[in-house]
Amino acid sequence: MQNETKLIIDVGTNSILALIVKTGHGELSVISDKKVTTRLGEGLQNSGLLSKEAMKRTVGAISGILNQNKFDSVTIIGTEAVRMAENKVEFINLIKSQCNLDLTVISGETEAALSYSGAFHNLDIDKEDVLLVDMGGGSTELIFGSGEMISDILSVPIGAMILKDATATDSLKEYSSFAEIVFAKELAELNQKSPGTFVATGGTITSAGAIYKKMTEFKAPEIHGMRLTAENMREIGQNFENLSPGKRKSLIPFDPQRADLMLPGLGIFLALLGIFKKDEITVSNGGLRYGAALRPEFVVSC
Fold first, then answer.
1. Mean pLDDT by 10 residues, the chain (302 residues)
2. 230-240 and 262-276 helices cross at what angle (nearest 10)?
């Protein structure tokens, strides 16, 4: 259907992203793009289960999104937290019974392909020899490509929330060191050269961009396409270290619930920059939800 209003709901490990767009002739017109933090994957690393409380929070947020918006169709997607949970069927059934929606749980590879399509939406960069890093709470997708063609995809089951739970010391150095070991081992099998352009999407890097710009209210157009250096990220991370939870939240007023994930998230990006010997990241506010709107035929269950 041309000129259809679509609602795309990305159910992530840390937050829900809800994108409403009008589509037609291969183009997107964004009506709304919002985030709700629900911590679906809280405790998942240690228990292997989605908690009752986290599922309830998440389903409640989905119900709120449905009730507060108008749209012609809905696509709802589950990623790493749902993929790895032993009780994923319980969560899928809960969404069906309370929201009358069929959650599509996609593979890490499908997530990467959709993220690649969506991350470059309205992003003015040279796409030759590019690495896109899409980091969420539960996993990190690394997509190597050139133009519209993807050459390699690596889905690593570690994101900001999983890294936080897996690491004993809450420090940028510790998170970066731990992440570097994990990613170096995974990347050794790909034998990929350092990319020409390093692009990143996900809540950590867009939040880091907003913090760097000293925003009190998140403004996506000002983030999309900006560049952050490794030194910028170290300075942001160092500001979060050795602070109480309350003071950390004051550093990220537009999304205070993300405060405790900024250090592990930045640690992952610094580890990857070190591995590829790069010093700069281009920030994208696009990603999976945009890819799902542009390429709905790719949204299939794993």
1. 86 95 84 93 92 97 96 96 96 98 94 91 86 93 90 92 92 97 92 88 96 95 96 97 94 95 97 96 95 92 86
2. 150
Computed from CA positions of residues 192, 193, 197, 199, in that sequence, does the dihedral angle turn out positive or negative? positive
Whole-number pLDDT of residue 255: 93
Please give the helix or strand (H or E) that residue 24 lies within, else none: strand 15-24
Alpha-carbon distance 64 to 87, whole Å? 23
Rounded to whole angstroms, the Cα distance separating 219 from 128 reads: 28
For domain 123-285, the question of CATH label 1.20.272.10 is answered with: no
Per-domain boundaries in the chain: 4-108+291-298, 123-285
Closest by CA to 192, choosing from 125, 114, 272, is 272
249-265 burial: b if 16+ Cβ within 10 Å, else e = beebeebeebbbbbbbb
Indicate the residue type of 99. C
| Pairwise CA distance, residues 199 & 150, whole Å | 14
CA distance 158 to 138: 5
What is the reported pLDDT for 24? 76
Q: In terms of CATH, what superfamily is 4-108+291-298?
A: ATPase, nucleotide binding domain (3.30.420.40)
- Return the structure tokens found at 88: 């994923």
- Burial class of residue 274 in the structure, from the number of CB atoms within 10 Å of its CB (0-12 exposed, 13-18 middle, 19+ buried): middle
Cβ atoms 5, 72 nearer than 8 A: yes
Ramachandran category for residue 149: left, alpha or beta (phi over 0 → left; psi -120 to 50 → alpha): beta
What are the backbone dihedrals phi and psi of residue 113, each rounded to the nearest 5 degrees, phi first?
-65, -40
Distance CA 297, CA 175 (A): 37
The total of other beta-carbon atoms located within 10 Å of residue 228's CB is: 22
Asked if 4-108+291-298 and 123-285 have one fold, the answer is yes
